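Q: Hi! First time asking for a complex rather than a single chain. Here are the components, and I think there are two in total. Is that enough to go on?
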Amino acid sequence: MTARRPDRSIATVCLSGSLPDKLEAAAAAGFEGVEIFENDLLTFDGTPAEVRAMCEDLGLAITIFQPFRDFEGMPEGLRVRAMDRAERKFDTMQALGTDLLLVCSSVHPAALPGADRAAADLREMAERAAKRGLRVCYEALAWGRHVSRWRQAWEIVRAADHPALGLCLDSFHTLSLGDDVDDLAATVPPEKLFFLQLADAPRLAMDVLSWSRHHRLFPGQGELPVADFLRGVMAAGYAGPLSLEIFNDEFRAAPSRRIARDGLRSLAWLEEQVGLAELPALPRLAGVEFVEFALDHESREDLARMAASLGFRRAGMHRSKDVELWRSGGANLVLNSEPDSAASERFEARGPCVCAIAFRLDDPERLVARAEALSYPVWRERIGAGERRIPAVRAPDGTLVYLVADLAEGERPIWEDDFHLEQDRADGGFLGIDHAAQAVAPGLMDSFALFYRALFGMEPDAPWELPDPYGLVRSRAFVGGQGAVRLPLNVSESGRTGTGRFVSALAGAGVHHIAFAAADAAEAAAGAVARGAPLLEIPANYYEDLGARIGLEEEELAGHAAHHLLYDRDAAGGEFRHAYTHAFRDRFFFEIAARGGGYAGFGAANAAVRMAAQRKTPRSRGDAGGEQ
Amino acid sequence: MTARRPDRSIATVCLSGSLPDKLEAAAAAGFEGVEIFENDLLTFDGTPAEVRAMCEDLGLAITIFQPFRDFEGMPEGLRVRAMDRAERKFDTMQALGTDLLLVCSSVHPAALPGADRAAADLREMAERAAKRGLRVCYEALAWGRHVSRWRQAWEIVRAADHPALGLCLDSFHTLSLGDDVDDLAATVPPEKLFFLQLADAPRLAMDVLSWSRHHRLFPGQGELPVADFLRGVMAAGYAGPLSLEIFNDEFRAAPSRRIARDGLRSLAWLEEQVGLAELPALPRLAGVEFVEFALDHESREDLARMAASLGFRRAGMHRSKDVELWRSGGANLVLNSEPDSAASERFEARGPCVCAIAFRLDDPERLVARAEALSYPVWRERIGAGERRIPAVRAPDGTLVYLVADLAEGERPIWEDDFHLEQDRADGGFLGIDHAAQAVAPGLMDSFALFYRALFGMEPDAPWELPDPYGLVRSRAFVGGQGAVRLPLNVSESGRTGTGRFVSALAGAGVHHIAFAAADAAEAAAGAVARGAPLLEIPANYYEDLGARIGLEEEELAGHAAHHLLYDRDAAGGEFRHAYTHAFRDRFFFEIAARGGGYAGFGAANAAVRMAAQRKTPRSRGDAGGEQ
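A: Yes, that's all I need. Here is the structure of the assembled complex.
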């Protein structure tokens, strides 16, 4: 961190619970200040002086008191009332020990237009504030009645010309209107930039008021160019705190400490983007080295049988632990039944499940340092003599993400230290792990997004909607290393969808779908069928429609049908051929996937057929998958 | 039902599950036809001929096959492919045994503009269809690339001028754009009106595509003027089926039979609105006669103590059952501990809860007949000799709604038949039951809306959002009899809000809040405080803000504070004074409420303070409420 990092602040409205809960969560996460949102004070059964004392005890500055609404431009009788109201709020601010009030542009139906009148009102308010040593900043709400842009707000502040009156900028109010701050430095003197609020959001085509009130996100979780915005504001000489003001229904329903930690991480990431502070550099991701399963002996036997049916062979036994390595070409599965381990804890809580995934990247220790700087929990396993310790970080659901060095030709792979290897790598089979999808409870999605983006530098794909027969599934993939690591996240409000059922089985979130990259999908699927793999039966109607829709020849269609293969083609002609298995004990399933011509998706067009087929014959096959 | 009632049809996309599930649910609800939504066929692992046979077995006509997308206006090479695609879908239709295909206006980026070209394409398609005895109808999608209004679609159909080509109308696509069908009769000849799709929706300010794909509702559940639309279409001579086409995330996640039943009810209600069919007339609602609680003896004692603290007195014992009547003025509470009863079943499933509510209305038996016509379950209790049988209907959560005749002066009230009365009505106390609020799981909200609107004729208020400290609560009140019956419905996606917790405790839904109407709120609250009622403590900061915001005098503020009273004032000067209790065992709570000057709301402005205060001291008072 450099000396000039601005203070970090968060509005109490971002967090759930009572005012003391919120303050404690903000302090525990490491914020230096809080915005006191008035509603949180009104519902608190202590005095403003007690709030001040709590903040002092926690080392939190009160950066601003907000919001003061519907002030400027009121007709005469109401104008007097508005001034009285301001005086009463100044009393509260002095008891709180904060000197800055946020006034947002009026939405009152009786508010009169005209910058002169607004300037006169704000000037009087600032004069009254100044008498008490207080200050006022004026913010353009994106849906303000007469003032919705920061340039309009600035015209009023400029005309009012009072030292106790300045501007409050807010990334959401600016970016949601498609506006920017490119001319801020040329327009507003630095001493008039009193306060800065930061929020991101997904791009939604809805009214800006609802968008703002329910769907804001922390920087990096959404799609707005918040870093560009912040760069513009800093270039204009802003010297105050960076303050998060997020109205989000899910944040308000989530534990306040988790949300506060995510808020701090998002600011640290944003500061890095803008050059206000440094973090250990982002990794270069090279692939998924393995997926690890937590199993008991019975489920391990069943899963090994299912893996064998997909062409995997046992490649080694761990030197000191009850762990097997199964391998097909470049795809590695670790089957862990070690007692008293991270895996066994996971098994006890959830039954058979994916307990870890490993990324290959340039420098594991640098990633560990980055995780520590972002307060993501780091985990180091207990190891036997001569074994290599692989560092890991914990994803928001507790899944371990191991960090494995991407080896140059000839370097010694991790497996040779830890395993008695029975088989080496050059044996055909899969190219590697194409993608690993996670089912995520709705309230965890944004935490995952931040984890993959801020810690690993993965970027989100456009979101998809997948029609499960029992409700909607929303999917958004995070991709790193130019496609070396692909992680779709699936979320469903419905507990009856496949995703909803996985979320229940996995206690909130977990990897539920692992796709193996094949050079030739038909060959891989044919082998799997021959070995009795539980591949999904695809209805003939699907192939009939595929013929009508894409115009594949009958022969090709028949080949796909024979191999249980689904097919997709993108606008540029990229092709995707893929087949799925039934689920293993309702916990996870596998896919054989072959990409061609730069295809970058996941076959979303086929998801409805896949999901219906998975529901059609649940757990009725015992031959290969142990899915009784 | 009159002879000319159109057939009732529903699109398979409205319902959850596999295609056979959907067909069975539609038939069980009483639909005469289904639209086969193509995706449901593609994911079905049987032939179209098998679908045809299933429908025949179930007595369902296939009213249409849909959708055929992106057909008209394609550039030459793609045009040939589109025609081939049509021929393949005609094959499917013939196997299905349906003669009508829905073509919706193209959204393809390559689609060429121009009505002539579109007309030529559709004419050729119609000609090909006609050769097989099939027909085609063309629908303007509200977000179509070149065609988004029915008048544009009609110009194309008119120009194509083929007997096998007609128009498909859809209430959502028309009404979502603020359009109407006022000139339909003057514009389109009846024989060109091939098909009609009906959907309602809440008024949402979002892009029309997302609105349509996720938020459609059955007629009567939303806010669009669907009845006006249907009147216009029928006036134009439409003679086909009325078909529901609803894309709704919650419907797709809900049990298909419940949703199908609601669909049929909504059509019956809509037909009544438009004069296509009759139902026994709507009731005249006069009030809430009583609220009934399912209790064991221990919780009954506790609740009786809490009721006494609010000014209720035991007014009678049931002649044959273990049931007490508690009364304060016009407000009646029935405390039911009868074993082997509807109440005891409820108690066993949920613990202490509201198991019934009784409406006073003009003609209970006519309402029973209406309920039967709408397939709402009717319930008649077992009674003792000489007792009166009060009919009831079951709300979507299983709560009984008793139907009590509104008496003229001098008629014998129900209580005298069934109870040994210890006390008569003229004893001061509350005026009656002001409102009873229900906590409802998100997926049940629309079923409740239909129940209150279609069966009882209640109308929804504007929706409110209430900020609980642990998430958002959305509230929408249904009001009947000019305010005689007021029933707010509260829903929350968060399980951590008060509403979310009530929903869990009440197993999906239930009355969780009963407000008693007081002539003088201060007097009623003072009495309650004196008797030790567990009224919520309201923070001083609330009164400080009330003074600043509304400008009440200090003396009045102090009076409110002394009596735990919240205060609200509407734009017309109507006033609301109200106080709340803590919750009784996390199941329900009470309110003392006084309306003045025509105030019609529920004090939503104070909800945040109420909800925070209820979370502040949960279950810590044992003196009056038995809330250990």
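A: The first helix of chain B runs from residue 19 to 29. Let me know if you'd like any chain examined more closely.
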